């Protein structure tokens, strides 16, 4: 009988059973802002998700409690910087209701027109990046075409393409210029043809339907329990629109319908926003055709202004053209006001105490509330579905964290509104303040990191600067004036410019600072994510030209 020979056991490594932890963001090309997601993955399946917020928090509520309403208006456009008309509207609606201030009919019509144009612009800028996130690059360029036309209308009426600062207590800052109504009507007719193009490119696209249909489903009960609003709520079968519910401004005078779907998935949220853009055009057309005459502001509100001492301010008033900022005493009451913003219910809880400053100013941002359901939506989904679900929610992190970003020019404008000479105004036209900032940067701040790699920190900017200068070698400055006339000049320019992200990474790494390194990673990721689709577009055109 033969004896069986036992083979020695093989050293097989044990299979790990724990989950993989992945950090998505805060610096990620598809995160729609500085949002960080800590994901627990089992292969491609999402087991858990923890959102990390607060990277853009700047204390906007506390700033409001130390400013008058007029002084605070330039700040509020930094919440949702893609729909600034709504942040301005909610800021002046509260004091108007507390002070029982009547808005002229013409001003109300102008407000509705601006609000609906802002709604369309916000939905367009949501749709373009959303399509890019799920692989559709072509609609992105179509969408920006119409959005620029809206910004042209904003610029003609308010003087600004963004951060308009146009709404005022009791009306608007200025009347519509001559010919503006006709241009807006022409845009409405043109935009309806653009929506038809979106339907052909997107809605009936089978690849798009596979990416969004049945992804991120929210039932009507869940939407109500989570406090969702806007398209997130209406896409789940709840017909709730504050323009119909609260009857603010003059929306009741127009014929329009609430857009809603019952499926509750990402496709339903897309369809709701597409339908809302069409309804907004209907509202704008009716408002343009029926806009009444009369004043664009309540002139009685000027009598509420408390004049400052003219002797203290005489030079500014006469020679710098600064005017007194009206200050309103807010009665001792509590009030909650809300508007139907593109992303949902934007609300303000306001408490007055017979002072020019609000005693409490609480912001209810729709993006912050809607974002809370994200962990539940992406659990048990695939990793590739995260961008689809997150994009369908439509968030702006400036609104979620209530951002404040002020540059030199904005400081000057804010100082002018506040009617005071402070640290923002030094020297003729305030130029000494900018000179002081530059001097402090050169002589007080460290130009090189004390604990970093000096060589890498110096080589990085050099690579970025040299690659930028080299790219000019193939750029023609005239018909016969070009340093290097190459047949592949555009591709050489792309190749040289692609070296710049290396310098950004080296600078961030050489600083030995995690925040600088994260900033370098973000800048490099953005550059790469923008260059790749642009290169593919140029390549396809070049191949077409060769044929």
From TrEMBL:
Its main location: membrane. InterPro entries: NADH_Q_OxRdtase_suD, NADH_UbQ_OxRdtase_49kDa_CS, NADH_UbQ_OxRdtase_su1/FPO, NADH_UbQ_OxRdtase_su1_CS, NDH1_su_D/H, NiFe-Hase_large. Keywords: Membrane, NAD, Translocase, Transmembrane, Transmembrane helix, Transport. The chain crosses the membrane at residues 456-479, 486-508, 528-546. It is a multi-pass membrane protein. Residues 133-402 form the NADH-quinone oxidoreductase subunit D domain. PROSITE patterns: COMPLEX1_49K (PS00535), COMPLEX1_ND1_1 (PS00667). GO terms for cellular component: chloroplast thylakoid membrane. GO terms for molecular function: NAD binding; oxidoreductase activity, acting on NAD(P)H; quinone binding. It is found in: Membrane. Pfam families: Complex1_49kDa, NADHdh. Belongs to the complex I 49 kDa subunit family. NCBIfam families: PRK06075.1, PRK07415.1. This is NADH-quinone oxidoreductase subunit D domain-containing protein. It comes from Salix viminalis.
């Amino acid at each position: 009988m033969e004896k069986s020979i036992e083979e020695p056991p093989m050293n097989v490594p044990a299979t790990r059973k724990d989950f993989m932890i992945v950090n998505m963001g805060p610096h990620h090309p598809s995160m729609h802002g500085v949002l960080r997601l800590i994901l627990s993955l089992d292969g491609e399946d999402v087991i858990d998700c923890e959102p990390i917020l607060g990277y853009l928090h700047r204390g906007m509520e506390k700033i409001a409690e130390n400013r008058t309403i007029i002084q605070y208006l330039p700040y509020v456009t930094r919440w949702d910087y893609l729909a600034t008309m709504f942040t301005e509207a909610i800021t002046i609606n509260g004091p108007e209701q507390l002070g029982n201030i009547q808005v002229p009919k013409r001003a109300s019509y102008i407000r509705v027109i601006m609000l609906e144009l802002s709604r369309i612009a916000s939905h367009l800028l949501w749709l373009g990046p959303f399509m890019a996130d799920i692989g559709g690059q072509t609609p992105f360029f179509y969408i920006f075409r119409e959005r620029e036309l809206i910004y042209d209308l904003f610029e003609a009426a308010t003087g600004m393409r963004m951060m308009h600062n146009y709404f005022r207590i009791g009306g608007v800052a200025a009347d519509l210029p001559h010919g503006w109504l006709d241009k807006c009507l022409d845009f409405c007719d043109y935009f309806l043809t653009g929506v038809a193009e979106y339907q052909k490119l997107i809605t009936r696209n089978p690849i798009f339907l596979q990416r969004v249909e049945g992804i991120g489903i929210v039932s009507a009960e869940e939407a109500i329990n989570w406090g969702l609003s806007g398209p997130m709520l209406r896409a789940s079968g709840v017909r709730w629109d504050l323009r119909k519910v609260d009857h603010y401004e003059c929306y009741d005078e127009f014929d329009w319908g609430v857009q809603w779907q019952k499926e509750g998935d990402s496709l339903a949220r897309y369809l709701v926003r597409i339908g809302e853009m069409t309804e907004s055009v209907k509202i704008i057309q009716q408002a343009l055709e029926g806009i009444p005459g009369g004043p664009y502001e309540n002139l009685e509100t000027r009598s509420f202004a408390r004049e400052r001492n003219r002797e203290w301010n005489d030079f500014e008033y006469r020679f710098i053209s600064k005017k007194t900022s009206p200050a309103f005493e807010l009665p001792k009451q509590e009030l909650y006001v809300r508007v139907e913003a593109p992303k949902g219910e934007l609300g303000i809880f306001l408490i007055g105490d017979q002072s020019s400053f609000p005693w409490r100013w609480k912001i209810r941002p729709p993006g912050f509330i809607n974002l809370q359901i994200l962990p539940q939506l992406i659990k048990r989904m695939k990793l590739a579905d995260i961008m689809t679900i997150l994009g369908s929610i439509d968030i702006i992190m400036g609104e979620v964290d209530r951002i404040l970003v002020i540059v030199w020019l904005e400081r000057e404008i804010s100082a002018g509104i506040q009617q005071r000479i402070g640290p923002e105004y030094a020297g003729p036209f305030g130029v000494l303040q900018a000179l002081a900032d530059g001097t402090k940067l050169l002589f007080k701040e460290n130009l090189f990191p004390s604990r970093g790699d000096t060589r890498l920190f110096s080589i990085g900017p050099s690579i970025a600067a040299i690659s930028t200068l080299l790219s000019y070698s193939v750029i023609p400055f005239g018909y016969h004036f070009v340093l290097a006339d190459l047949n592949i000049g555009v591709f050489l320019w792309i190749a040289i410019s692609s070296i710049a992200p290396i310098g950004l990474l080296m600078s961030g790494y050489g600083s030995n600072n995690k925040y600088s390194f994260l900033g370098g990673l973000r800048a490099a990721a953005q550059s790469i994510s923008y260059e790749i689709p642009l290169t593919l577009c140029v390549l396809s055109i070049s191949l077409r030209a060769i044929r």
